[in-house]
Amino acid sequence: MVKDEELNSWFVEEVLPLERALTAYIRQNWRVPEDVSEFRQDIYERALLGARRALPVHARAYVFTVARNHLVNKAKRAQIVSIEAIADLDSLGTAIETCETERILTARDELRRAKEGIEKLPAKCRQVMILRKIEGLTDREAAEELDVSVETIRRQIKLGMKALIDHMLGGSGKIVRKNYSRTPSREAKP
User: Fold this and answer.
1) Burial category of 153 from C-beta neighbours within 10 Å (exposed 0-12, middle 13-18, buried 19 and up)
2) Quick check: 90 and 75 in contact, CB under 8 A?
3) Lowest mean pLDDT across 6-10, 96-100, 157-161
4) Is 3 left (phi over 0), alpha (psi -120 to 50) or beta?
5) What is the DSSP letter of 26?
């Protein structure tokens, strides 16, 4: 048996974020829009009851399986099992795979964009970013590797991260250095 605190935490962290997708799934597979809210609550209740024995490893797959079974049972009771309804319900596996595929593609795109942003950096800054953020060296280790001061490493990381964030947000991704122009000296009065 799962403790109430653990069950509540699982529900809030794993199940509630699925609400939008679950609602869309119910709307897509049930012909009566007025039933959507009630069905969603029924599915939550069934998911909690089942999870009380042991928390599922894959919450998304578990919740959508509960949803599919609930809709099939409702359709059987209402005796409105049409070929279209069963065909839609059988596409659940594809819907879950599509979400995973979208997540993977998004992550790959972000990784590609980050790589492009790092490649735009000046050579020294790029080296520092790779050593610190990709290879995981400490400031001191990176400084020893490049034979520079720790302060130089920190400054390069700060500049590199700002440029990388700018690139990821659609900007130029160029390093912007502060301009410390000297104030003109006062001319000597005659």
Assistant:
1) buried
2) no
3) 96-100
4) beta
5) H
Q: Give residue 3's Cα distance to chain centre.
A: 28
Radius of gyration of the chain (CA): 28
Complete DSSP assignment for 89-152: HHTHHHHHHHHHHHHHHHHHHHHHHHHHHHHHS-HHHHHHHIIIIIS---HHHHHHHHTS-HHH
Query: How is residue 41 written in tokens?
Result: 């609550």
Q: Locate tokens 């400084």: which residue?
A: 143
User: In this predicted model, what pLDDT tens digit does every residue of 5-38 receive, in sequence order?
Assistant: 898 899 899 999 999 999 999 988 888 888 888 9
pTM value > 0.90: no
Q: Which residues contact 7 (CB under 8 A, 6 or more apart)?
A: 48, 51, 52, 55
